Amino acid sequence: MALRSKVTTFLARGASRKPLTPKKGNKNFYKGTGTGPTGAFMPNSTTYRIDPTKVRQFVVPDLTGFALKPYVSWAVPQEKFEWTTSDYIGTQADAAANRIPADSSAAASSTSTTSSSA
């Protein structure tokens, strides 16, 4: 009876489909950053030489005189936007207008001239 309950429990749990993180892995699991090593060990030596072309560089824009701060207060009211039917139909009509040429007779004449010249 004990074996049957263990098998049922195992099948009921199933496999975890969540991404594996260093906290969920065993003690030897190291995820890293995905960027690879920044250098290499020198042959026949224990020294590690850093390659300047492999060092991570963070590009930060110049924010002198920038008015906004990196903190957003919780007291700021959240704006609500509701889509209306005209907004949705307007975007669909714009998309359709970009796909279909405005002057269909000009498009038809250009295709007839290309087919007659061939």
Please give a structural write-up.
The protein has 118 residues and is mostly helical. Helices cover 35% and strands 5% of the residues. It contains 3 helices and 2 strands. The protein has helices spanning 2-13, 85-99, 104-117, and strands at residues 39-41, 48-50. Strands 1-2 form a two-stranded antiparallel sheet. Strand 1 (39-41) and strand 2 (48-50) form a beta hairpin. The longest helix has 15 residues, at 85-99. The mean pLDDT is 75.
Succession of helices and strands = HEEHH
| Distinct helical segment count | 3
The separation of the N and C termini measures 82 Å
What is the spatial order of strands in the main beta sheet? Answer: 1-2
- Give the proportion of residues in helices: 25-40%
> Compute the gyration radius: what is it?
31 Å
SS content category = mainly alpha
Strand residue content: 5-15%
Shape: flat
Number of strands: 2
Q: Major beta sheet, specifics?
A: 2 strands, antiparallel
Task: Give the topology.
Elements lengths: L1 H12 L25 E3 L6 E3 L34 H15 L4 H14 L1
Short summary:
Helix content is 35%, strand content 5%.
Labels describing this entry:
mainly alpha, 5% strand, 118 residues
